[in-house]
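stage 2 :: seqdesign
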């Protein structure tokens, strides 16, 4: 049975809503697989390592000296909500990858949070302006419950891949499943293909 397109308050059909999703409006649901940590930015670091020519670590201040860029658009959660007109800012993952210089053969990335949470992504889904290390939301510091002070943002995939409290990107030559991927979630998570679970 074909899904009916979402119809907004003014009766217009949304063509930008992936199948099986609903528009959450102004709400921003909080879903977390672990206890929300308190992170001291004076001690926090961001590392890119693994199959790279130059493993590199940045402090909070060093990361903020890099050119900030923004993302404005929708985000989509595997639990079927979508939020439109979001605004995040931070540093493009491309900048960090270019500094670390991925080696030939690097094909995947394992993103790790300060909590130990991990998620896996194909490297080409973090390239080309598709991903950020974000520290603001709607022009304000990113709230703790949404990953603050800093989270990975990969808005074209389901939001579990946008790891909260990010601290490390490790480049690999193989796909190594992260927390939710080991527990039944799809290895990629494309909302437009409804890649929610194993076998989708």
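stage 2 :: out
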């Amino acid at each position: 049975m074909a899904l009916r397109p979402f119809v907004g308050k003014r009766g217009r059909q949304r063509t930008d809503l992936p199948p099986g999703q609903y528009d959450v409006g102004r709400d921003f649901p909080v879903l977390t697989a672990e206890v929300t940590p308190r992170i001291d930015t004076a001690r926090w670091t961001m590392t890119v390592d693994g199959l790279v020519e130059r493993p590199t670590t940045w402090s909070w201040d060093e990361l903020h000296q890099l050119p900030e860029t923004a993302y404005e658009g929708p985000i989509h959660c595997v639990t079927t909500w979508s939020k439109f007109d979001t605004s995040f800012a931070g540093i493009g993952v491309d900048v960090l990858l270019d500094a670390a210089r991925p080696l030939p053969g690097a094909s995947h990335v394992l993103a790790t949070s300060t909590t130990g949470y991990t998620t896996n992504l194909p490297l080409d889904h973090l390239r080309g302006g598709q991903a950020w290390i974000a520290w603001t939301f709607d022009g304000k510091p990113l709230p703790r419950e949404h990953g603050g002070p800093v989270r990975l943002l990969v808005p074209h995939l389901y939001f579990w891949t946008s790891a909260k409290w990010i601290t490390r990107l490790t480049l690999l030559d193989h796909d190594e499943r992260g927390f939710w991927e080991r527990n039944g979630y799809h290895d990629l998570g494309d909302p437009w293909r409804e890649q929610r679970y194993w076998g989708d």
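stage 3 :: structure notes
- Helices lie at 60-64, 93-100, 179-182.
- The chain has three helices and eleven strands.
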